[in-house]
Amino acid sequence: MVMQPITPEKAMEIAKKKGLKPGRVKGTTGVQFTKGRNDRLEIIDWDEFKTTLSKRKLQVYESGGWMKIMKKH
């Protein structure tokens, strides 16, 4: 399947259905989705997640409910 870019709002909808939250790797600006059980990640709010995506020129891509954060094309 082809990965398609989606909006942060759509990513939030998918994440909530899967029990995922936005997270940041502690001590970095790296963001990813998490269930909150990894000590290396800190949960952030969705506004901070969207701001980080914008500042770092990142986009959430989705295929069949599977999401990945990558540089915008």
A few lines on this structure:
With 73 residues, the chain is α+β, with helices and mostly antiparallel strands.
What does this structure look like?
With 73 residues, the protein is α+β, with helices and mostly antiparallel strands. It has one domain (4-71). The protein has helices at residues 8-18, 46-55; strands at residues 4-6, 21-25, 31-34, 41-43, 58-63, 66-71. A three-stranded antiparallel β-sheet has the order 1-5-6. Strands 3-2-4 form a three-stranded antiparallel β-sheet.
Brief descriptors of the model:
three-stranded antiparallel sheet; globular; alpha+beta; 73 residues; single chain
Describe the secondary-structure layout.
Elements: E1 4-6, H1 8-18, E2 21-25, E3 31-34, E4 41-43, H2 46-55, E5 58-63, E6 66-71
Antiparallel strand pairs: 1-5, 2-3, 2-4, 5-6
**Helix and strand succession?**
EHEEEHEE
Work out the strand percent.
35-45%
Strand order of the largest sheet: 1-5-6
Structural class: alpha+beta
DSSP strand tally: 6
Note the gap between the termini.
17 Å
Radius of gyration: 12 Å
Helical residue percent band: 25-40%
Q: How confident is the prediction overall: mean pLDDT?
A: 94
Number of helices: 2
